[in-house]
Specification:
The chain has 510 residues and is an alpha/beta fold. It is built from 17 helices and 17 strands. Bound molecules: 5-O-phosphono-beta-D-ribofuranosylamine. The site of 5-O-phosphono-beta-D-ribofuranosylamine has 15 residues, from helix 11, strand 15 and helix 17.
């Protein structure tokens, strides 16, 4: 029987569900919690039912609960974030049965509400997929239940005592019922891997069939080998009928700080701009404060032509709020050609532009010297070559050593130089791509920072291939720039172009 849905949410917040277990639901929930907490409000994450405890220095802890607790913007205890923690890492009704427990809805709901009452906004993470049962399919437990967590953590982490098992729950209950009982809007995390479209569509249908609103979805790339990731993403965008709150690439360390740049805060805020009267409106929050610990970082971008990579970087900086969240600003766009189309784009985007025509200088060295002085006026942390069609002198490169990067339309070290796409086709390559690299004195030979792989298709000519590689560049370069500025020195990251991503080295998709 479909339970009646309360007329309004139990508290301001949303319920996070996923297409499956192990698809990064907790990582995304933690990142969303941190992101919203940075708006200056008290945001708490709650994992009502957590399965799997590890003994850590004498304490029974659930890893998800620890990660969520760390993301909260207010002080909360383990048992407030994870009111019911089961010892065995398996389906909750089975974990409960193993402990002689029946999960009791009412005290669990009360515990969730108590935690939520401490905060302005709550991110409630479901367990497993949307319809995971919380009760045995049979109507009543076969043995007298005992406690929710036999291996009880120390008192300050002990799950709420009201949650001790009750012998005869009112009815069968599943994770979807939990969302319904809280009447929360739902966010769907889609684990991007083969089969995800079906899982996502079924989940969306189930959410809506329960009378709940699907307010957003997040694409989380959990399979670095996934083929046709962009096509899958496009299909999901069309089928799910809800705004996408972010597309998170495969990350070897999916920490909130690494995920947040890939989430769309504006989409999240928009979803909560029409909460029922009386509930806090997230959109009325004060504008995003700069992080006190973040030093301002400046980028200068050099272009010569269409500047589409510059545009991609500038758009990512805007939509992902690099300034507010990382203190990163594009200080100037500099071109050696006054007629570069990218200059107009930059001006329309409100960016400061400079033109330094190389034709006004007798020698390459003189131009580079003037260019260096022009750039230095902005004291950049990073100089980004984005279709800057000049070979730079050693003196210039050495001056900006370690903070000068370029994007090259080939999978370096293959095909340095010009005419890369035709050369890749002539060589019979099955894969092409783009490389972001540090600039060294030798052209196209600096340390590789990130790569994107694009398959060569049977009917490709140089133009078609160039176009698809450029599309991949537009995804790759902004993320590489961001990572270069926010990651510790000497870490490299490879980002998927059409679904394939690797850390620390490139592998071809199969
Ligand atoms: C890109 O293909 C890039 O790889 C190469 O120059 C081209 C620049 O294109 N270095 P755009 O000016 O960013 O559109």
């Amino acid at each position: 029987m479909i339970p009646a849905i309360p007329s309004r949410p139990a508290f301001p917040g949303f319920f996070v569900t996923g297409t499956d277990t192990e698809i990064g639901k907790t990582a995304i929930s933690a990142a969303l919690t941190r992101l919203l907490g940075q708006q200056g409000r008290r945001v708490v994450a709650i994992k009502p039912i957590a399965a799997g405890l590890d003994l850590v220095e004498g304490q029974w802890l659930n890893d998800d609960v620890q990660r969520l607790r760390a993301a909260c913007s207010l002080e909360v205890q383990d048992h407030e974030v994870g009111p019911l923690q089961l010892r065995h890492a398996c389906a909750p009704h089975i974990a409960a049965k193993l402990e002689g427990v029946v999960i009791d809805p009412q005290p669990l709901l009360s515990a969730i509400k108590r935690t939520a009452a401490k905060a302005d906004f709550s991110v409630v993470e479901g367990v497993g997929g949307f319809c995971v049962p919380l009760h045995e399919p049979t109507s009543a437990p076969t043995s007298a239940p005992t406690q929710a967590t036999p291996a009880a953590p120390p008192s300050e982490q002990k799950p709420d005592s009201n949650l001790e098992a009750r012998s005869h729950p009112a009815r069968r209950w599943d994770s979807a019922d939990l969302a319904v009982d809280l009447a929360l809007p739902v966010v769907l995390v889609v684990g991007m891997r083969l089969g995800c479209i079906n899982h996502a569509v079924l989940s969306a249908e189930a959410i809506r069939a329960r009378g709940l609103k699907l307010v957003g979805w997040v694409a989380n790339h959990v399979d670095p080998h996934m083929g046709h990731a962009d096509d899958n993403f496009a299909t999901l965008s069309q089928l799910l009928g809800a705004p996408c709150w972010g597309r998170v690439p495969f990350l070897s360390e999916p920490l909130p700080d690494h995920i947040m740049p890939h989430l769309n805060l504006q989409a999240v805020l928009k979803a909560f701009s029409a909460l029922p009267p009386g509930l806090p409106q997230l959109t009325t929050l004060p504008s995003l404060p700069s992080l006190p610990t973040t030093r301002s970082k400046k980028i200068v971008i050099l272009i010569s032509g269409s500047g589409s990579n510059m545009q991609a970087i500038a758009e990512a900086a805007q939509t992902e709020q690099w300034a507010e969240r990382h203190g990163i600003h594009i200080a100037a766009v500099v071109s050696n050609r006054a007629d570069a189309v990218g200059l107009q784009t930059a001006r329309k985007m409100g960016l400061h532009t400079e033109v330094l025509p190389h034709t006004q200088f007798e020698t390459r060295a003189e131009f580079d010297s003037a260019l260096r002085d022009c750039i230095n006026r902005f004291a950049p942390d990073l100089v980004v070559l984005a279709g800057f069609m000049r070979v730079l002198t050693a003196a210039f490169v050495q001056h900006f050593a370690g903070r000068l990067i370029n994007i090259h339309p080939a999978l370096l070290p293959a095909f340095p130089g010009l005419n890369t796409h035709q050369r890749a086709l002539d060589a019979g390559c099955q894969f092409a791509g783009a490389t972001v690299h540090e600039v060294s004195v030798e052209v196209d030979q600096g340390r590789i920072l990130a790569q994107a792989v694009v398959p060569v298709l049977p009917d490709d000519d140089a133009g078609r291939l160039a176009h698809r590689v450029l599309m991949a560049e537009h995804r790759l370069y902004p993320q590489a720039v961001l990572q270069k500025l926010i990651q510790p020195k000497n870490r490299s990251q490879n980002y998927s172009a059409e679904g394939e991503a690797r850390q620390g080295g490139l592998q071809h998709p199969v």
